[in-house]
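tokens incoming
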């Protein structure tokens, strides 16, 4: 599929997670591995998106090094979601990266107009704002919705999708694309093995 400049695969998410977990999905889906399109590759692309996602204060700096760190954080989050699909648990490096995020940020309670208590990040830097995603993950782990957020089991894809199936058994971002491709590959492998 070709798309116009400025168009990103995640702008038309076909299996979106409910808010606020969609913020985690949005961050991890900033890269489309199959077409090598990465919204976090360049400061010019990343900055407006991060501000819109409340992951960067409007006047906070954003360097190439910040972006490189964020891409590493993104992949550490993806490792958690691969585990949700039945893959290996997150590795030591992934946990170290996520613990650095936890150590860098803090959250404070705010009361919204309906009287609901929200936890908001303190500070405007990217690393500080990421604390909000940790709060969202923590809430989702508590209410059980976390296990429905998954990374596609196709290693060449790893797109993050919301698994709405009753038994939470979904493994593919798109059964017609990734599911069938893997099935065909397995079939071919078996076929060759039998010959
Ligand atoms: Zn997929």
């Amino acid at each position: 599929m070709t798309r116009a400049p400025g168009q990103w695969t995640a702008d038309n998410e076909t299996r979106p997670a409910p808010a606020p977990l969609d913020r985690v999905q949005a961050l991890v889906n900033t890269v489309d591995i199959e077409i090598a399109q990465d919204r976090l590759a360049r400061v010019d692309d990343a900055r407006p998106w991060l501000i819109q996602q409340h992951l960067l204060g409007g006047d906070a700096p954003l360097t190439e090094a910040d972006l490189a760190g964020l891409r590493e954080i993104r992949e550490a989050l993806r490792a958690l979601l691969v585990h949700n699909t039945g893959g290996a648990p997150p590795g030591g490096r992934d946990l170290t990266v996520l613990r650095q995020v936890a150590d860098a940020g803090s959250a404070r309670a705010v009361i919204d107009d309906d009287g609901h208590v929200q936890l908001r990040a303190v500070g405007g830097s990217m690393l500080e704002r990421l604390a909000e995603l940790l709060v969202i993950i923590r809430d989702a782990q508590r209410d059980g919705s976390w296990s429905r957020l998954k990374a596609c089991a196709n290693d060449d894809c790893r797109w993050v999708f919301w698994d709405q199936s009753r038994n939470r058994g979904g493994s593919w971002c798109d059964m017609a694309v990734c599911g069938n491709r893997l099935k065909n590959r397995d079939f071919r492998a078996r076929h060759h093995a039998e010959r």
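note: The mean pLDDT is 92.
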